[in-house]
Specification:
Elements: E1 4-7, E2 20-26, H1 37-52, E3 57-64, E4 67-73, H2 79-97, E5 110-114, H3 117-126, H4 130-133
Antiparallel strand pairs: 1-5, 2-4, 2-5, 3-4
Helix pairs in contact: 1-2
Length: 137
């Protein structure tokens, strides 16, 4: 049996060390949040730096032009602090680089908590295939 809990934007975040989070965030009005290779690299660099400041682990990721997916195993520092650091920092850098103002992301990130291995294995397989299915790879 696969068990997961969906946490939508606006709901309280469920977090505890060891939980698996399938995290998704989309650009406001479904607009692009990555315009070029520099944006993709900047996001991944910011993710790496943010992970260095927290005991969370990224198990899989996919970056699409207008959204991203992360599969994170929560550490003692918690996923909300990691995501706040990542998304706020990236949005500020993106806005500065592209000379724009205002929100970059549509709402907060969406988080699905998954607790059993079959779902984990499916996510690890599917998340990296997401760009290929969209014809981006």
């Amino acid at each position: 049996m696969i068990f997961y809990t969906s946490i939508r934007p606006g709901q309280a975040r469920l977090d505890a060390p060891g939980l698996l989070h399938h995290i998704m965030a989309r650009g406001i009005e479904r607009r692009a949040i990555f315009l070029d290779k520099i944006d993709y690299a900047g996001f991944l660099q910011r993710l790496e730096i943010s992970l260095g400041k927290s005991p969370n682990q990224v198990l899989a990721w996919a970056l699409m032009p207008n959204h991203f997916h992360l599969l994170i195993r929560s550490g003692s520092g918690g996923v909300p602090a990691l995501m706040r650091r990542l998304m706020t920092g990236y949005a500020a850098a993106f806005n500065h680089r592209h000379r724009r103002a205002g929100p970059l992301f549509q709402n907060r990130y969406k988080s699905i908590i998954c607790e059993e291995e079959p779902y984990l294995l499916e996510l690890v397989r599917c998340i990296p295939l997401n760009p290929l299915r969209a014809g981006l790879g």
